[in-house]
Amino acid sequence: MHGLLRRLFAPRWQHPDPEVRRQALQRLNPEQAEQRQALQSLTQDSDSQIRLAALLALDDCVGLVNAYPHHQQEETWFNAVCQRLSGREGHTDLNQRQTLVEQMDEPRVLSAVALQGDNLNLRLAALSKLSDEDELIRQACHNGVAAVRHQAAERIEDEEGLKRLLKEARRDRQVVRLARERLNRLRSDAQWLEAEEQQRETLLHQLEQHARAPWEPLYGGRFRHLERQWEQLTQPPSVEQEQRFHQAVLNCRKTLHDHETQEQARQQSDERREEAENTREQLLEGIEETLDGLRHASAMTVQDVDSLRAQRQLLGQRWQALSDIHPPSETMRQRYTLAIQHYDQCLEAWQRWCAVSAPIETALASGDHATLSTLISDCQWPDTLTPPALLGRALAACNADSTAPSQPTEGSTTLEAHGAELDTFEHLLERGAFKSASRLHQRLKPRIEALESSAAQPLKTRLKHLAARLAELRDWRGFVAGPKREQLCASIEALANDLYMAEEALDRHHRQLVKEWKSLGDAAANREQSARFRSASDRIHERLAPWRDQLSKERENNLKAREALCDQLETLLAQPAEDADPDVLRQIRDKARHQWRHYSPVPREGSEAVGRRFGTIRHQLQALIDQRAETIASKKRELISQVSALRSDDSQPLAQRIHLTKQLQQQWRALGRAPKGEEQTLWKTFRHECDQLFAQRDAHKNEQAARQQQQLDQMQTLIDEMDSWQPLEAGESATLERFIEQANQLEPLPRNRRSEGMQKRMSGIVRARRERLNRLAVADTVQQWHAIMPLVNAHLAADQRYLSEGSPSDVDAQTVLDTSLPSAFNQSHNVRNQQRHSVAVPLSDAEHARIADSLARLRVHLSMLAVGSVRQSDEPLRLAIQVERLNEGFNQERSRDQEVIDILVALLALGPMPATLWDAEVEELDNLLSRLARVPLP
To answer: How far apart, in whole angstroms, are the C-alpha atoms of residue 863 and residue 878?
Structure first.
């Protein structure tokens, strides 16, 4: 009961039936508070249409927009939102509507507001929220506000979208221009990107090819040039291109680093070779000085022979060690061989002397001079060597029997020789060479003391002074050598007691101490220190015995490895390839040298033989390298001559010569290196010849560019002259043809943007001037028609008499016109006169229709030429005329002037013309002819 009463007395806007609520809502006034509250309650109604009506009644645009996302599929909601936001309905403030539009994300609503908004800023705000390209194209083509169209067109960036915009936007020229410019810019950017990409690929190819090329003098400069060109490219490379670039750069830098390493190794090798040469020089000087001392000594002793043997052993060891690293020169080898021969002679003479020394001493003691002479002859002591003291006495005894003693004679030459030897003695004392000075003193003292003349007294006095200096030097050596010997004894005992030092270091320090001990000689020598030094040295030898055994095995293995290396190199040299690359041979030589050094040390007894063998192989390998390098040098000289011939050969085109020169450059790179001293000279000559040829190409390009620039300037001048010329009469077409002929003489133009722009401009100017000449010709034709209008009127009058009276009469053109009839109208004038004789009167309906149809056809044709359009009723005639014009156009192109003449000729020949038909069309025909007679101002 309560619910029934409630339904009976409840307001109708709360009725359960939606239709009742909708009707009640229409009667609610939002200006009254209670009804407004009711409307606000209805905004939450379950029916969407009622909610929409309530929001519209309240003019609540904010609520309408907030509720719209739940009703996007309903067209009524969409229309209501669009109308409210656009300002077509409601009284919502513009700023509030603009704020709501900025918060809106629905493309349909935004597009509608942009099309229908009542304010420019509102439309622009809606447009700024649009992102779909189709919607932007729609706005740019169909929006009613130019600023919105332009703003939408500026936001289109895709190439396909710009093409659509250029195709569809016909109402706004600025939009078309903007789309065309943007599209041209995109295409230009695409072409630029493609050119940039192509240039980057070309650089990558050149850089990779350069990375695979061998080193040459300009390798580093070309690499830096390519690297700078890569850095100058503005477009960032792809990941794959970046990786290829870095790999090529690493390879190039590796080639440069390898070359620098090789250069450093070569310099170091040269330094070591020079150092080895200096060491060899010192060793040879030492043994040569010793041998020379034996020749000039007073007598040869056992100590001298032992010293000579020790020096020979040291020389052999050091010489072999140095030869393993760097082979000696031919001069040094000859000096070494000669010194060894002198040593062998000395040693063999000493061995023969040792064999006969005891019998000679016995024979000398017994006075058996016959046996003594036989033994001396068996000894075969060389004349160049100073004999031992015993042999000297035996020789003196033998000579005493054969010759009587003679008084010594002292010549000036002998005194000068002794004086020179005293100078040498003094020089040795100043240098501190005690051993050499002592040996020379022992030789000079008996000779100078044996001199008895008064002239020899200064020599004896000087010898005493120098002997005193020698004694002083001996004392100083003893004074210095005493503490040094004690220090050496302490050092070698400490070294023997050091149980943790490595064997190699122990051996090195032990050898150094022994060398320093021997260098002291007999200065301040005593048995106690010698025994201490020898005892400590023996302990070190015992400790190093296992290590030396292992080192001996290693030396044997190294010797075998060196022999195997020699076998491999000899096999290579036995059958060398005819096209062997000298660079590869150089690598083999360097690697062989490295392996030779690696297989070190070797046993002394086999080192000299294998060293000579390796030295011979290296000389043969170097000779092969020099031979192949010389062959390459001859080929490079031939390439230089070919480039020089191409440079002076004017019979071939320059482009072909440049192409052949580049092929020769590739052949140059593939050849390899010439001999070291000649490669740079050949390269400079080859490069100079190539540069001369490339200079010709550059000069030709500059000349061609200047010629093309002059050609473009002449064309620009001609175009400017054509642009400033405006024909005033139809007969000036010859001037245009002369301009075109001059332009044809300047073609072909170089292909660039400027020439393309010139050609477009010239085409436009020629088209405009032809159009003006055509208009002038049409105007002249119309003036001729106006001039013969008395003849036309006479024909019309004759036609009317013939149609009314039936008696034909001819019209005389010379009588009617003051001037002669133009030739184009003569035939039509005669045909018009014949028509009055051939057409029967009164006119039949078919004939009347034919004349009317022909007259209408001529009017429509003239309207198409003058206006470009016809009346709707004349569309069939227009289509028929167009088909006819197309069919005639397949055979020949007709000018506008010719078409006008044909129309006027046909119009003059059409008859007999009824007055009604002519009066119906004559006004329009006059208007059309007046339009054709108008010529635009120049």
So the answer is: 10
Residues 6 or more apart whose Cβ sits within 8 Å of residue 445: 298, 463, 467
Q: Rounded to 5 degrees, what angle do the CA atoms 505, 507, 509 make? A: 70
CA-to-CA dists, residue 370 to 233, 351, 391, 395, 398, angstroms? 106, 22, 15, 12, 9
Rounded to 10°, the helix 527-574/604-648 angle is 40
| Strand, helix or coil for residue 490 | helix
847-851 long-range contacts (CB < 8 A, ≥24 apart) are 848/914, 848/917, 851/910, 851/911, 851/912, 851/913, 851/914, 851/917
Cβ atoms of 94 and 123 closer than 8 Å: no
pLDDT in tens, 445-494: 787 777 777 777 887 788 888 888 877 777 776 666 778 788 888 888 88
Helix (H) or strand (E) holding 148: helix 146-154
Under the banding of pLDDT at 50, 70 and 90, the label for residue 1 is: very low
Per-residue DSSP letters for 844-863? PHHHHHHHHHHHHHHHHHHH
797 close to 829: Cβ distance less than 8 angstroms: no
- Cα–Cα distance, 708 to 35 (Å, whole number): 88
As given in the structure block, the two tokens for residue 102 are 């900025």
Report which secondary-structure segment, H or E, holds 415: helix 412-431
Q: Which residues contact 198 (CB under 8 A, 6 or more apart)?
A: none
Asked whether 915 and 796 are in contact (CB, 8 A), the reply is yes
Residue 727 confidence class, pLDDT cut points 50, 70, 90: confident
**For residue 898, what are its two tokens?**
């010719």
Smallest CA-to-CA distance from 89 within 42, 75, 97 is with: 97
Nearest to 933 by CA among 713, 765, 781: 781
Q: Over 80: is that where the pLDDT of 367 sits?
A: no
Residue closest to 618 by CA, chosen among 640, 641, 592? 592
Give pLDDT tens digits for 864-916. Answer: 877 766 777 777 777 777 777 666 654 555 677 888 888 888 888 887 888 88
Span 180-191, average pLDDT: 80
Note whether 861 and 899 are within 8 A (CB): yes
